[in-house]
Amino acid sequence: MDRQAEMQGENAGPAAADDLPRFRPRGFAAQELRLISALVLLLAVGLFLALPFVLSIGAVVFLPVVAAIVLTIVLSPLADRLAQMGLPNVLASFLSLLVLLGIIVLALLVVLQPAVSMFDTMPAIIARVGAHFEELRSSFAWVSRLNQQIAEIAGHPAAREVVLASPSFLEQLAFATPSVLLEVLLTFLLAFFMIEARVRMRRRLLLERAHFGTSLKAARVIREVQDRVAAYILTVAVINVGVGIVVTLGAWLIGLKAPVMWGGLAALLNFVPYVGPLIMVCLLALYGLGTSDVALLGLLPAAAYLGLHTVESNIVTPSVLGARFTMSPVLILLALSYFSWIWGVAGALLSVPILLTLTALVEHLGRPNLIGFLFGEPLFSTSSLEAGQAPPAG
């Protein structure tokens, strides 16, 4: 029996030795893939943490470039449509940019012209709002007296108020206007040249690749990003115009001054998710309190707009946009806070288009498996990578 076991061991030895090299490369490949995934994750985290400081310090350079890229994505379909009508590429690019400028100027005139005429009534509105808050404060005067009695018993001295001198609003506006105008001019110049060069860029991406599968994948990515961002902004713009019309009619029925201004302001602020409607509610509340003798009646415009926004954001917009443009509210708020922190109001306006662009790129290039990576799985699954590759030509 011992001799037979030894002979079986000798026969099994070479087979096991032959099978060992088959499993070793797989183990090495898995370790290599995990090492690469770890390096990619660390680089991504480092880039995410360092990017805000780089972009905020270099906002004069990076903000016009990013805004021009977004404008190029949005206006390229219009330029393509004009070029198909027989216009030269340069003229089609210029006209598409001119259409956007006309819309922006018209929207600003609708909002700013009545606002300037209403500026003279601001002291009276502020005084009336202060009177309403003084009445509310007098209703809770017992809280202030209780706080003073507790401070006297505890022996705390009265706090000293320190007022720091700061530049006035007009001085800050005068300092900021030249840089803002320069950035706007640079943004539109970059957008024009990018729109005009879109045909050459597509030709280079499609024809100067070594493999047909890479060219096909690049074409799909470009088309998906352009179609998604342009369709989203166009659809949201139509919805916001509808919201502006409804707000204009409602302001006219309620009796607010300059109803067209309130409608245009509602349409513009609705481009900024969550934060824009909240600002609109606050503005309507302050204006209502400043023009009404009764506080509850003054809050009626804000309550009416809040009800309209609730219907629009929960019923109208999801049904019109559909599942293709559905994004997590957490991602939207993170993008909004992230780019608002970097670039302020301009970052808030660009946050959703940038998020849409990144989402489309991730869907084509592969979604990272962050949760699985923490438990030992690869960061990018091989199935998603293989699914994104096109079959070779021939």
What report would you give on this structure?
- By secondary structure, the protein is mainly α.
- The chain has a domain at 59-117 and 187-208.
- Helices cover 83% and strands 0% of the residues.
- It has 16 helices and no strands.
- The chain has helices at residues 2-57, 59-84, 89-117, 122-139, 141-154, 169-196, 198-207, 212-254, 259-269, 275-291, 295-298, 300-321, 329-343, 345-365, 370-374, 382-388.
- The two termini are 61 Å apart.
Question: Can you tag this structure with a few keywords?
Answer:
globular; mainly alpha; 394 residues; disordered C terminus
Write the layout of secondary structure elements.
Layout lengths: L1 H56 L1 H26 L4 H29 L4 H18 L1 H14 L14 H28 L1 H10 L4 H43 L4 H11 L5 H17 L3 H4 L1 H22 L7 H15 L1 H21 L4 H5 L7 H7 L6
Question: Number of helical runs?
Answer: 16
Strand residue content: under 5%
What coarse outline follows from CA principal-axis ratios? Answer: globular
Helical amount: over 70%
Cα-atom radius of gyration? 30 Å
Spans of at least 5 consecutive residues whose pLDDT stays below 50 are 12-24, 383-394
Order of helices and strands: HHHHHHHHHHHHHHHH
